[in-house]
Write a structure and sequence with these properties.
Elements: H1 6-15, H2 28-37, E1 41-43, H3 46-55, H4 65-69, E2 74-76, E3 82-84
């Protein structure tokens, strides 16, 4: 089971509309359960975001780092890490 930080859960709650048309979580507990269910991951850098997508078969070779950071599945966290949620 993943441990998601409070700032990670809050960031997801506040920005879930960038990936989903309707809210999928309304509380910290619901956000944590949803992230665990979809096996969301937290990585330390944009290089690791790119690595994650490549390992999962996504064609990101032509994407700039800015485009990667702006992808709807990528949630930049206040501490400099990134939450990746596949919808």
């Amino acid at each position: 089971m993943n441990e998601y930080s409070e700032e990670c859960l809050l960031t997801f709650l506040e920005n879930q509309s960038q990936l989903f048309d309707e809210p999928v979580a309304g509380s910290m507990e619901e956000a944590e359960a949803f992230l665990e269910d979809c096996m969301a991951v937290v990585v330390d850098s944009l290089d690791e975001v790119k690595e994650y997508f490549e390992e999962n078969g996504a064609d990101v070779e032509t994407m700039s780092m800015d485009e990667l950071e702006e992808a709807s599945e990528v949630f930049p966290l206040p501490n400099g890490q990134y939450l990746i949620v596949e919808g």
